[in-house]
Structure formats: structure tokens, C-alpha cells
Design a protein that fits this description.
Largest sheet of chain B: 9 strands, mixed
CATH topology of the largest domain in chain A: Rossmann fold
Distance between the termini of chain B: 10 Å
Shape of chain B: elongated
Largest sheet of chain A: 9 strands, mixed
Oligomer: heterodimer
CATH class of the largest domain in chain B: Alpha Beta
Order of helices and strands of chain A: EHEHEHEEHEEHEHEHEHEHH
Number of domains of chain A: 2
CATH architecture of the largest domain in chain A: 3-Layer(aba) Sandwich
Structural class of chain B: alpha/beta
Number of strands of chain A: 11
Largest interface: A-B, 63 and 58 residues
Order of helices and strands of chain B: EHEEHEEHEEHEHEHEHEHH
Number of domains of chain B: 2
Radius of gyration of chain A: 22 Å
Strand content of chain A: 15-25%
CATH class of the largest domain in chain A: Alpha Beta
CATH topology of the largest domain in chain B: Rossmann fold
Radius of gyration of chain B: 22 Å
Strand content of chain B: 25-35%
CATH superfamily of the largest domain in chain B: P-loop containing nucleotide triphosphate hydrolases
Shape of chain A: elongated
Helix content of chain B: 25-40%
CATH architecture of the largest domain in chain B: 3-Layer(aba) Sandwich
CATH superfamily of the largest domain in chain A: P-loop containing nucleotide triphosphate hydrolases
Chain lengths: 294, 291
């Protein structure tokens, strides 16, 4: 089985738009996963039916049982996260600040602080408009543990692929270089990097690729809006060559990408525009590179 | 006063607004002193647009337990109290997984024989830059470090110490999304500007950001970027939810080109400058009403 993850470092480079296009082009031969759980946008183009819903809990938070509390203040003393508040002699937990470490519960002499499983969000298993299966999630506003939710989406996507005997999982990854991205990359076979020829695009690509290298995952690069700045596009190509990254596609700056999104379709389905041809070609090149012998 | 420039969706123009707004406010001396802080520590970009002189670079550390084999009696308490699976016991060996550690100190302080002292471990770097008309502060997470929050929290502490005067205005280029990094910034800010774009993606993620801000009880208003592309659904959404739209930055290929050259936009695009001045006016009014 091949697990393909699309990431970009910087947001707004066209990552989700392209992943959704590839999902449509891959048809029923793959399982789609949306691991951009903070900003899950792929469903707007792939129209999932939210067939199965599962509430996902991970991590803990503390709660003080007031009847048992003797206001000794031990919990306040040990908390490193300013999560224990005192008002008029009453100790409470600020759930937003609580890391769930359980130190307060451990030292409470009255055993007045139970640790409660924290709701992180919901995970959905859906049929999308191509007939394929998609695993996606909704992070609870303000929730911690988005990395755990990402891991859950990937685990479910893998299980669905095994169940249906499919060979490929296509994942829309998260931005940045922190825990959700680390979770997205863990266990992946191939990474599609999407960037643009801007100082931020290059900077963020290099940082996220340093992370990809730590995982020793092969990567291909798509340069979106390549005609915006030809000098920087050349710089990106040279960088890719020096790092042994295959340049899969140079996409034009074309507002048809946004028009497609606004119409609720993927670029691949926008057959009146040149962009559908570009993304089809990019997907073919990516597949060749994915299945290439190392 | 601290203003966080945030967004649910990435790439909507947080950095574009932050750097142009900071430069515009400083150039026109709208506030007594101005600080721009880039707290998108995973991918900090504001500095790419600033030609300044680095005044100070500070390494930032978090504290991780270190196992002292000689003192350890293998009682197993450390493994039991760690809720993050960061402390593991294999027979007579204790293993620490630093990337999972949240620096809660429980294992270290509860150890009966002091065998797990907390030791500093580098997580990133903060720098202070003199950008001539204003001060720029950037924090940058080391690659391979998973937790952005401790670095963000330490940088905010530094900003609060650095900006002693209540006349200071602090603009914060925030992390994207709706999870812990942006919440760490938002809960420590006085007001949030949410940047969005008039597309279904932008609107959907704006809605998530709005829910998050309401959840943590923060006041916010919206700036629409790339106005002219997509559709007008975002206007209706803001009207229906009684959210103020401060400004609409225009969609132009020319703006994207100037951005790709690493330059400021408002000097070359009058339509952009006119909208930027609305954001400046809004902040002046916000500051006045808070005093």
C-alpha cells in the first residue's frame, strides 16, 4: 500500500485544491484522508455524505470536586500552566490552560481532582462524489491534541483501504512543521510538496522539507503560480535538483483555480479551463514517480 | 495593546497585512511606539520582508527531565505519573522521550530520590530586530520540535516585559488554524483581526476561527483579502453574525507579484493603501475606547 501525503509548509499555495483534484482523478482506486483538521476544506469540493460519525477523545483535563476540596492549595502550587485559579478562596481549573498532565490530581491529598477524557473532535467515514471513501475530521474549537486527531484519521483511512483491498491512500496534510505535520508524515511513502515562487513559499518549503528528510520519505514538487516570479521559480527548481526532489509540475497563475472552488468543483473537473489539463498531467507524473523503483 | 492577526485558513494574507500595517502605522507615527511580533513560530515569514538590524538573538529552552542512573531506585513512580508517555521504564532503565514531554515537572518533583532533574533543552530562537521605524520580534521553532506553544508562551512573556508602556501597540502575526498555537496567541491578546478571503474555503475556515474566538471569549473583527475574487457569501455571513468587516484588500495580480518580490504593497497600490488606512483608523478607535 502507498500512502501519499500532500503538504506545503505555507498555507494558500493550492495544496487542498490540488489534493481534491487528485482524489477525483484517482476515482475509486484510493481512500482519501483530510488531515488538515484545523482547516478541513476538502469536503467542500468532494461532497462527503457523513455516513459514519465517531466522537474522538484524547488526552485528559482536570476537574476539582468542590465538595471534597479543602482549599489546601497544593494543586495551585504544582501547576506549571496557570490552569488552577483561585477566586474568593475557591479553587477551579481553567480548562483552556489545562495540559492534562495530572500533577495536581497526583498531589491532591483529598483525591478531589479526577482526570477526565477530553473531547478532541469528531471523525467521519464518508462516501464522496466519486464513490470513493473519505476519512475526515472536525476539531472541536479550541481543542488540544490535533496531532492525535490526525493520527486517528490516518489510522482509519488505512483500515478502510485494507478492508476494500485498495493500494493507495491520499492525504491532505496540515500546514507548519509541528505535531499535526509530524503526525501526517509518520508512515507516509511519498510526499507531494506544493509551493509558490514567493519568499515565504520558498522559506516554508525548505523548513518543511528538512522535516521530510528526517523521515526519509521521497518527495515530488509542484510549483504553483510559477509565472508570478520566474527568478524564484528557477531558484525553486535548482533547490529541488540539489535535494533530489522530482519537479512534477509547473502550474500557471490562473484565477480559474479560485473559480473552480467557488463553483464547488475541483480544478480537474473544470474542463473548460486549461487548469484541468495541468492538474491531470501533474497527477500522472506524480503516480509515475510514486511507483518508480527507488 | 496587543492585536493578533489570525485566520483559520493559511495563506489568506496574515503576513501581508501584518507587515504592511506595521510599516504604515510606524511610518505615519500613529502610535507612540510599535512592535511587530511574528509568532507563527513553525513558519515565520514576516522577517523576509524586513530589512533591519538584529539587536539581540536569544536561544529559547524548555525543561526536560534527565535520568540519573546512580540515584534511581526503579520505583516506577515517574512512568506512572507521566500522562504523555514521555517517561518509560524498561527493566532497570528509564527512557525519556523529549518530544512528548510537556514540561509539567511531575516526574521530576515527585521522584523520591531526585533522580530526574529538569535540564534545559533548546527548542528554538528568538530575535529582536531594529526595523528603523519599529521593533520586530521573531521566534523560530527548531525543525523536529513538535510543540509550538512553549516557545510562543515564552515570547509573549518577553514582549510583555519589553513593552512596558500602555501606549505601545503590538501587532502579532499569528499561527494559522484553530488549535493550541493560535489559542496561545489569542488568549494573550486584546483583540483579534481575522483575515479571510471571499471563497468557500475562506468562509468555512473563517467560521471555524469565529467559533474558536467565541469559545475563548475574545473580541474580533474581519479583514477580507483578495476582495473581487470568489463570491460575496462572506459579507452575508458577517452581516448575519454581526461581525464587523474592517477593510477589503483588493485582489490584483500586481499585489501577488510585489509580494513575490518581498516588497511592501501599499506604496505601489493606492487601492490597497486606502483599505490599510481603514485598519489603522479602526485600531486608533479601538485604542481610544480601551483607555
Amino acid at each position: 500500500m502507498k500512502e501519499i501525503v500532500v503538504i506545503s509548509g505555507k498555507g494558500g499555495t493550492g495544496k487542498t485544491s490540488l489534493t481534491a483534484s487528485f482524489a477525483v482523478l484517482g476515482g475509486k482506486n484510493l481512500v482519501v484522508g483530510d488531515c488538515d483538521v484545523d482547516a478541513d476544506d476538502m469536503h467542500l469540493l468532494l461532497k462527503p455524505d457523513y455516513n459514519v460519525k465517531e466522537n474522538f477523545k484524547s488526552g485528559l483535563y482536570a476537574e476539582i470536586i468542590q465538595d471534597k476540596c479543602t482549599a489546601c492549595g497544593k494543586c495551585f502550587e504544582v501547576c506549571r500552566f496557570n490552569a488552577v485559579t483561585i477566586e474568593n478562596g475557591v479553587y477551579r481549573i481553567d480548562e483552556l490552560n489545562c495540559e492534562g498532565c495530572g500533577y495536581c490530581a497526583e498531589v491532591c491529598p483529598e483525591k478531589a481532582i479526577p482526570m477526565i477524557p477530553a473531547a478532541v473532535g469528531s471523525v467521519f467515514k464518508s462516501n464522496i462524489k466519486t464513490g470513493a471513501t473519505m476519512i475526515h475530521a472536525r476539531l472541536k474549537p479550541g481543542a488540544d491534541n490535533s496531532g492525535k486527531l490526525v493520527a486517528k484519521v490516518k489510522q482509519d483511512a488505512k483500515a478502510a483501504a485494507v478492508e476494500m483491498g485498495l493500494e493507495m491512500i491520499l492525504i491532505d496534510g496540515s500546514p507548519g512543521i509541528g505535531c499535526p505535520v509530524v503526525s501526517s508524515l509518520t508512515g507516509a511513502d511519498y510526499v507531494i510538496l506544493v509551493t509558490e515562487p514567493t519568499p515565504s513559499g520558498i522559506h516554508d518549503l525548505k523548513r518543511v522539507y528538512e522535516l521530510v528528510k528526517k523521515f526519509k520519505i521521497r518527495a515530488g514538487l509542484i510549483i504553483n503560480k510559477n509565472d508570478l516570479n520566474s527568478a524564484l521559480t528557477e531558484e525553486l527548481k535548482k533547490y529541488a535538483e540539489s535535494e533530489n526532489i522530482n519537479v512534477l509540475s509547473l502550474l500557471p497563475y490562473n484565477e480559474d483555480f479560485t473559480k473552480a472552488i467557488t463553483a464547488g468543483i475541483t480544478a480537474a473537473e473544470f474542463t473548460e479551463s486549461e487548469i484541468s489539463g495541468f492538474v491531470k498531467d501533474a497527477w500522472v507524473k506524480a503516480k509515475i514517480d510514486i511507483y518508480k523503483e527507488k | 495593546m496587543k492585536i493578533a492577526v489570525a485566520s483559520g485558513k493559511g495563506g489568506t494574507g496574515k503576513t501581508t497585512l501584518s507587515i504592511n500595517l506595521s510599516s504604515y502605522l510606524a511610518e505615519n507615527k500613529i502610535f507612540k511606539s510599535l512592535i511587530l511580533a511574528d509568532l507563527d513560530v513553525e513558519e515565520p515569514n514576516s522577517g523576509l520582508f524586513i530589512n533591519g538590524k538584529t539587536v539581540e538573538t536569544v536561544e529559547k529552552y524548555k525543561f526536560i527531565p534527565e535520568w540519573n542512573k546512580e540515584k534511581c531506585t526503579n520505583c516506577g513512580l515517574c512512568e506512572r505519573v507521566c500522562n504523555f508517555n514521555s517517561v518509560l521504564q524498561f527493566g532497570k532503565t528509564i527512557m525519556i522521550l523529549p518530544e512528548l514531554c510537556h514540561s509539567c515537572y511531575a516526574c521530576s518533583e515527585l521522584c523520591p530520590v531526585d533522580a530526574l532533574p529538569m535540564k534545559p533543552q533548546r527548542m528554538g530562537e528568538m530575535k529582536l530586530v531594529d526595523a528603523s521605524t519599529y521593533t520586530f520580534i521573531e521566534s523560530r521553532l527548531d525543525i523536529g520540535q513538535e510543540q509550538a506553544v512553549p516557545l510562543i508562551a515564552q515570547t509573549i512573556e518577553y514582549i510583555d516585559e519589553y513593552s512596558q508602556s500602555s501606549d505601545d501597540m503590538v501587532i502579532i502575526d499569528s499561527p494559522p488554524g484553530t488549535s493550541c498555537p493560535v489559542i496561545e496567541v489569542a488568549k494573550n491578546s486584546d483583540f483579534i483581526i481575522l483575515v479571510t478571503e471571499p471563497t468557500p474555503f475562506g468562509l468555512h475556515d473563517l467560521n471555524l476561527a469565529v467559533e474558536t474566538m467565541r469559545e475563548i471569549g475574545k473580541e474580533f473583527a474581519v479583514v477580507i483579502n483578495r476582495w473581487g475574487i470568489g463570491n460575496e457569501d462572506v459579507i452575508k455571513y458577517c452581516e448575519d453574525n454581526k461581525i464587523k468587516i474592517i477593510a477589503k484588500l483588493p485582489n490584483m495580480r500586481k499585489i501577488a507579484e510585489i509580494y513575490s518580490e518581498g516588497r511592501l504593497i501599499y506604496n505601489d497600490v493606492p487601492g490597497f493603501k486606502a483599505e490599510l488606512s481603514k485598519v489603522a483608523d479602526f485600531l486608533v478607535e479601538l485604542k481610544r475606547s480601551s483607555n
